[in-house]
Specification:
- The chain is mostly helical.
- 72% of the residues lie in helices and 0% in strands.
- Helix 12 packs antiparallel against helix 13.
- The relative contact order is 0.11.
Length: 316
């Protein structure tokens, strides 16, 4: 029996982790993951051939980020996610809140800008087009917290608590579009906060922390709402296949618990990354001041000492 026009069998055996992790390719995401890894690897090779280096940590982060997308979209987790709300919520949380963080820590835009050749005078190649996009008004809008935070919240409430979710789950293109949307929302939300790549909106570190904590509580509230509901709230998962031996309301409670618990994980990861970036920034600023002091004979310190001496003289 087909489910929602996807051509997937509804008669899945009861869920186990072993069954869920079996390979079951979604062609769109499989090609996308292989293409992302291929382009990233090509850029690294290009840098190495001209004698430049690229941090291994960034490469590992990007690799793991792509693998997390493949994990939830190219295994039977994706099949079970079509008929089990709890499994779908794992997919959603990973692809919108874990994968984007890992991908952003891989700094793919910075790598592309370093690897792509500079076009000749008066010409616009891929590198110049990418720079134009980064500095465009469009990017300033979509990376501003006035846009990213409401979008992050609406991706939960406006999707699951309206008929839109059931509509998208009714076709393969709709399901793919929804998952791509989750990934894109995660990228634009976390990029201004902790992304390594240059971006049009880059506030101070305190403001970044405030942006992070402005969005996270809504995930917890969403999870609690699902856990406290007395009846199934999403039509797609109201009648799970008999072969799963699953109660729809219990599955929804599990989905809510996953959404509630998972909201803490990216908060901790991003906070650690932010604190690390903040420390590195302070170290770079200290080194810059040291170099400036070496060049000008520490004139800034001398001027400050003269100012203190003048205050002391006035007080006597």
């Amino acid at each position: 029996m087909d489910h929602s026009g996807h051509g997937m069998t509804m008669d899945l055996p009861p869920f186990t982790l072993g069954r869920a992790l079996q390979f079951s390719s979604d062609p769109f995401f499989l090609v996308g993951c292989l293409l992302a890894l291929g382009l990233y690897g090509w850029a690294m090779v290009r840098l190495r051939r001209r004698g430049d280096s690229w941090p291994v940590g960034r490469a590992i982060s990007f690799l793991i980020g792509v693998l997390t997308v493949a994990l939830v979209m190219c295994t039977k987790l994706n099949d079970y996610g079509m008929v089990m709300f709890s499994v779908h919520m794992v997919q959603h949380m990973v692809i919108s809140m874990l994968s984007p963080i890992l991908l952003l820590l891989g700094a793919p835009i910075t790598l592309a800008l370093r690897a792509l050749p500079v076009a000749g005078q008066g010409r616009k190649g891929p590198r110049e087009l990418l720079l134009m996009l980064l500095h465009s008004r469009y990017m300033k809008v979509v990376t501003h917290p006035a846009f990213t935070i409401p979008l992050f919240i609406a991706s939960l409430y406006a999707l699951y608590f309206t008929p839109l979710f059931d509509f998208l789950m009714g076709s393969t293109p709709g399901h793919i579009a929804m998952m791509v949307h989750f990934l894109a929302v995660g990228l634009v939300f976390f990029w201004p906060i902790m992304g390594v790549d240059p971006g049009p909106h880059r506030p101070g570190y305190v403001m970044r922390m405030l942006e992070l904590f402005a969005g996270m509580p809504f995930h917890a509230f969403f999870g609690i709402a699902l856990m406290m509901a007395t009846q199934p709230m999403v039509g797609t998962y109201m009648n799970p296949p008999a072969s799963l031996g699953l109660d729809a309301l219990a599955d929804q409670e599990a989905a809510g618990g996953i959404a509630w618990a998972f909201s803490e994980i990216p908060s901790v990861v991003v906070l650690v990354a932010l604190l690390f970036q903040w420390r590195k920034s302070e170290e770079r600023e200290a080194r810059r001041k040291d170099r400036a002091a070496d060049r000008d004979g520490d004139k800034e310190l001398e001027a400050y000492n003269a100012y203190l001496a003048s205050l002391h003289a006035r007080g006597q």
